[in-house]
Write the structure tokens for this entry.
Amino acid sequence: MPIREVPVTEITKMMREELKSVFPKIDFSVRKTGYDSIYVTWTDGPTQAEVQAIDDKLVATSQALVALITDLKANGALT
């Protein structure tokens, strides 16, 4: 199976789902802006630091996957 990059639209969806899971009573607006940016807004509820922590977790996971895929390709395990 060929490896593909995850489109920002899918990452936006994952961010929305994760925020809803952690803060079920808060309405978030999660939108793709530009080529590779996501803009998140909300009223009341969590602090910016709490929402940033969720974003940081998704970014770290994404970076780890990219590093793993790069390593596997370099070792010939993936094409």
About this structure: Residues 10 and 32 are 10 Å apart (CA to CA).
